[in-house]
Design a protein that fits this description.
The chain has 312 residues and is α+β, with helices and mostly antiparallel strands.
Length: 312
C-alpha cells in the first residue's frame, strides 16, 4: 500500500492492436494475435495484462509462471519454441506469447459447437476448463469465471484514443461520492442516477432487492457519471476500462481495486488522498471512508477514461 500512495462476437474485437503494450512485445502480440479467428491482438494483450501485467518474471502463489502465467504441467504439453532457438522457455516472452495464443486457439477448437459466443467460451474454458463450458453449454455460472471473461473482453474492446479523467472530473466524482456517505450497502445497487435497489444475491446469500443504496462498483459508477464519464458495472470491468496507474502517480479520483489477481478483482473504492478511499464495503455496512489497506489484497490503481462512443 505504501508504494501505491508514494507521491500522492465470435470476433468482436478489432484485428488491429490498439491497446497500449510494452514496445518490446508489440510485434510478438501482433503476430500471435492472428493465430485463429477467436484470438485477436487486443484480446491477447488484454489477457497478458490480466495475467501478469506484462511481467515476464511473474510467478503466482499457485505456481503459474511467466508473462502468460502457464502452470508447469500446461507448459510441458502446450509450450512451443516461438523464436526458433531450440528451447521452450516459459520465462521468454518470445516463446510464451505465441504459446498462449496457440493454447487459446486449441481451447477454442475444443469448445467449438458449444452454444454462445465462441470467444467468450474460449476464455471461460481457459479459466474454468473445457469440461465446465461443455457441461453448462457456455460460460459456466462461476462468478470468478464470469468476471474473468467480462474483464478481458471489456479491455480488449476498449476504444482507443480515450482521455483519462481530468482533475476537475476527479473532484466532481469525489464530491458526489462524499455526498453518499451513510447510504446503505445494497448488493447490485446503484446506477448513474444514484442509489437504487439491488439484486440477489451476494456470495454469502445477502440480497439487495429490498435495500436502496450502492455496492462498491455502483458507487464509483455513479460518482463518475456525475463527472460525465460512463463506467461499466462491475469492479473488474471498471479496472479493465481504465488506464493503469503507476505507484508514484496515484491521484485523488483514481479507482483502487482489490483481488488476489487482476482476473479476480472483487472490490473497488475511490481514492481521495492521504491513503484513504470512499467505498461501499459489504452488506450490512454503509458508504464510508476507509484506509486504502482496508482489505489485504489491494492489487492495482487505475484512472477512469472517457471515450467517444459510436452510434450503432
Amino acid at each position: 500500500m505504501a508504494a501505491l500512495v508514494q507521491g500522492a462476437g465470435d470476433n468482436p474485437a478489432s484485428t488491429a492492436l490498439s491497446l497500449t503494450v510494452p514496445s518490446q512485445y508489440k510485434s510478438l502480440i501482433e503476430d500471435a494475435g492472428h493465430t485463429c479467428s477467436e484470438v485477436t491482438p487486443n484480446l491477447l494483450a488484454a489477457l497478458l495484462t490480466q495475467e501478469s501485467g506484462f511481467n515476464p518474471k511473474a510467478r503466482s502463489q499457485v505456481g503459474a509462471e511467466g508473462i502468460a502465467q502457464f502452470m508447469p504441467s500446461t507448459w510441458e504439453s502446450q509450450g512451443i519454441d516461438g523464436n526458433g532457438d531450440g528451447k521452450r522457455d516459459v520465462w521468454d516472452p518470445a516463446d510464451a506469447i505465441p504459446s498462449a495464443a496457440a493454447y487459446l486457439c486449441g481451447i477454442a477448437e475444443d469448445v467449438k459447437g458449444v452454444p454462445g459466443n465462441a470467444q467468450s467460451n474460449m476464455l471461460a474454458a481457459y479459466n474454468a476448463g473445457t469440461g465446465a463450458v461443455r457441461k453448462y453449454g457456455g460460460v459456466p455460472p462461476y462468478k470468478e469465471t464470469q468476471n474473468y471473461v467480462q474483464s478481458i473482453q471489456a479491455l480488449a474492446d476498449r476504444p482507443s484514443g480515450g482521455k483519462t479523467a481530468t482533475t476537475t472530473q476527479a473532484e466532481t466524482a469525489i464530491a458526489a461520492a462524499k455526498a453518499m456517505i451513510g447510504q446503505p450497502y445494497s448488493w447490485g445497487g446503484g446506477n448513474a442516477q444514484g442509489p437504487s435497489t439491488g439484486t440477489c444475491c451476494s456470495p454469502k446469500g445477502r440480497s439487495g432487492t429490498a435495500v436502496s443504496g450502492f455496492d462498491c462498483s455502483g458507487l464509483t459508477l455513479y460518482a463518475y457519471a456525475t463527472a460525465g464519464i460512463s463506467l461499466p458495472r462491475t469492479a473488474a470491468e471498471q479496472y479493465a476500462a481504465s488506464e493503469p496507474v503507476t505507484p508514484g502517480d496515484v491521484r485523488p479520483g483514481d479507482l483502487v481495486v482489490y483481488g488476489s489477481t487482476l482476473s479476480s478483482i472483487h472490490h473497488v473504492g475511490l481514492y481521495i488522498g492521504g491513503g484513504w478511499i470512499i467505498d461501499a464495503p459489504r452488506p450490512g455496512a454503509q458508504v464510508r471512508y476507509d484506509p486504502m489497506d482496508v482489505m489485504p489484497d489491494l492489487i492495482a490503481v487505475a484512472r477512469p477514461t472517457s471515450h467517444s462512443h459510436k452510434e450503432i
